[in-house]
Amino acid sequence: MSIQEYPELAKIARKIRINILKMIFQAGSGHPGGSLSAVEILTWLFFREMNFSPEKINDQRRDRFILSKGHAAPLLYAILAAKGFFPEDDLWRLRKIDSHLQGHPHRLDTPGVEASTGSLGQGLSMAVGVAIGLRISRINASTYCLIGDGESQEGQIWEALLTAAAQRLNKLCVFLDYNNLQIDGRVSEIKDIQPIKDKLQAFRWNVIEIDGHNFTQIESALKSFHQEKERPTIVIAHTIKGKGVSFMEDNVSFHGKALTAEEFEVALKELGNG
Ligand SMILES: Cc1ncc(C[n+]2csc(CCOP(=O)(O)OP(=O)(O)O)c2C)c(N)n1
Ligand SMILES: [Mg+2]
């Protein structure tokens, strides 16, 4: 299991989960489920993979990350705070008037945020544009993007997928947070995206399927990404929405609401901070 293999990263991931729940509790609103499902993916990207840190914020050669599923802003904010882009105390002002941490990421407000997102379907197109721009500028940096499975019902996602393959954007790596839940039910029941692997392969992507909570599998998916010389890479990451808190796991009712005081207490205990 990844926890034994990467104890330091597992520790960071646990802290990120705690901070996601704390900031949403303080705000009284936000999206905990889809934030918790991608904790390992972002922890690996920001702490092991990407050439990106506060001192590189304006470095043209930095790797870029775009959170296409912008409602998972609490996850991105918790990660950026842990990386030192801004003080951890800022997190407790999520969604408050005059806070730089609004409900969805704003590129001009928050250090470390590369793109303003939240209108689902758009972030992948931005990532494609960034990857094309980097190539034109002859900058050898990678672009990473996180999309949701419900988000993948958007037509614009498929347009961007086509463009990336046609442009042979081998420096673009997309993670699909496949938790099989969207805002109001199961993706498989509302508008199924299966057979997603076949579809993405038919769109001429390098497709890898992993357990999105397993650091070892995330690591090997990224190895394949770096070896690929022609195609863009997409990692179908099977995840559990609400991962880490028993009563939130795979529970659609925690898509977009804060925990009650009682739930919050139980959740923190489960995560070892009670
Ligand atoms: C264009 C657009 N339509 C609707 C919404 C409202 N909305 C926010 S999250 C969400 C569900 C997203 O599901 P998914 O992509 O599976 O995200 P996750 O399960 O990772 O939270 C919806 C419909 C939105 N943000 N943008
Ligand atoms: Mg989902």
Primary descriptors:
11 helices; 274 residues; single chain; binds thiamine diphosphate; five-stranded parallel beta sheet; binds magnesium ion; alpha/beta
Descriptive report:
This protein is an alpha/beta fold. The chain contains 11 helices and 5 strands; from the N terminus they run ααααβααβαβααβαβα. The protein has helices at residues 2-5, 7-27, 33-36, 39-49, 73-82, 123-136, 155-166, 187-190, 196-202, 215-227, 261-270; strands at 64-67, 143-148, 172-178, 206-211, 233-238. It has a 5-stranded parallel β-sheet with strand order 1-2-3-5-4, sandwiched between helices. Strand 2 (143-148), helix 7 and strand 3 (172-178) form a beta-alpha-beta unit. Helix 2 (7-27) crosses helix 5 (73-82) and helix 4 (39-49) runs parallel beside helix 5 (73-82). The longest helix has 21 residues, at 7-27. It is globular, with a radius of gyration of 17 Å. The two termini are 25 Å apart. The model has no long low-confidence stretch (mean pLDDT 97). Thiamine diphosphate binds at residues 33-34, 37, 69, 71, 118-121, 148-151, 177, 179, 181-183, 241, 255.
Brief characterization of the structure:
This protein has 274 residues and is α/β, with parallel strands linked by helices. The protein has 11 helices and 5 strands, in the order H-H-H-H-E-H-H-E-H-E-H-H-E-H-E-H. The protein has helices at residues 2-5, 7-27, 33-36, 39-49, 73-82, 123-136, 155-166, 187-190, 196-202, 215-227, 261-270; strands spanning 64-67, 143-148, 172-178, 206-211, 233-238.
